[in-house]
């Protein structure tokens, strides 16, 4: 701001500023003071508007990105609203249904049978699981866990009610384990423990699931739902009796577990109080008293798990996952892991760890679903939208999965953006637009990848491999449009040059794909150059058969001047060869040959690489050799004895004008003139 406006702004923004007093004093000062203040206010307003406009331009890109994020968030909120509406209708229908019907009599062992040998029964149940289920060793490690009931069920699709797969459910005293069948497969372990029939699919705690009876409707009979946060599954029993038995046992087991948990908390509290009282009393009588080891260990375990935040942690994790507060959930996981790292390896703490690990698995699945591409999810978000989920997965130690899903997400977005392009206009225009979509996306992905995985150097190789695969997909589209159509060599050269320039821009992020691109299109370039060379040679032969070695006659000065102007556009100056106003002392064959060679030379230099040098030199040499053969044949023919001088003049034009033009093309690229072309130039001079 200027000095007057700056002073005015300081006065107006001071704490003791009184508007009424300021206006009254100003009005008493006279008209000149009022006009001066008006001018100052106007300057301040202009400077404020200018500053505001400058800030808007400065943060323009951020405004655009914020608008995109708001648009994406709007779509996700709409989806969330739709999901909440469905959940509300589902809960309403659940309230109307009966959880169980015709309660079956569940036979339970007597207290005497339970007290006889519970440890042996537990080992027997867990051994049964190890023999039958693959990958359930972690399930059997929890002390006090027992098998209550098991049986075969058929998993149904909740929407179509069609059978998905056959499963085997194992009801434990604290959880429900689901295993899928392994048909026609015998898997043996070492040491041998019998054939495995099932594969572990999932473990769900009883206090986190709900059982819902499904009424029989049409072919859908004997089915029931199990609501397992955060999803639900439908199963079908083989008979109504089996269905009732599952419903009753599940409901009864949930009640027993709730009662056990309540008793355990009360007993733990009473034990702490009693232990504290006994310890205090004994210490008063005998200061050298030492507690029994088992009692001391139990007290230590109870003390470690007695914190209020630990007791509420599983529910807090469930709430964070349900509300999609992944950052908060990961903060809780890190906090409890740090706390449990200092705890002893006791059975109670081990059981608590298993409960937390189950939530961590659900949290990981939720984060991975954020990165997975599905038809109902928006593909308009940039890599920043995925960086948040990636950061939380890395904090959970899942950097490999985060890297894989992040790159797959970007692949889907790049393919979607390319599909939005429409092929309109010239081929080179489409390729320029295609590069404008593909390479900036690749560069943006690279920058976001470096930010997200800056401390995980092992993931960098995965990004390089991904970039190469994406380039392969891009080249397939490029090859189809450029080399697969009817484009001439000039268009092909322009398109190749556009892509090469885009590849160089990737070096800004330390990624160089130029060699990969050249290697992918080398076969197509070779075929294009070879085909073009053969077409020119065929044209030389065809025109040579009809060549009468006569000067060009344009019949009028106007037409002759027009032809000279057209030829000058490709780099040939024919004015010194014009005589008698309408004649040119060159043949049509020579002029057409020179035009074709100049155009070919320019295109070959555009596509030039050191790996293709021999191919390009060979193409030019063969074309000049064919024209040289035509000149030699004409000189040896008795039909053109009178035209020898004219033939030599045409050969001289090719050597003195054409060869120098092509040599200039090579020098413009900083290349030496090929020895093969120098040798052919010498042969032309011999003819002269």
TrEMBL record:
PROSITE patterns: PH_DOMAIN (PS50003)
Name used for this protein in its record: Exocyst complex component 8
Job description of the protein: Component of the exocyst complex involved in the docking of exocytic vesicles with fusion sites on the plasma membrane.
Lineage: Eukaryota, Metazoa, Spiralia, Lophotrochozoa, Mollusca
GO biological process, any: protein transport
Transmembrane recorded as keyword: no
Membership in a protein family: Belongs to the EXO84 family.
CDD domains per UniProt: PH_RalBD_exo84
Principal subcellular localization: other
Signal peptide: none
Keyword list, A-Z: Exocytosis, Protein transport, Transport
Places the protein is found: Cell projection, Growth cone; Cytoplasm, Perinuclear region
One GO location term (cellular component): growth cone
Coiled coil residues, start to end: none
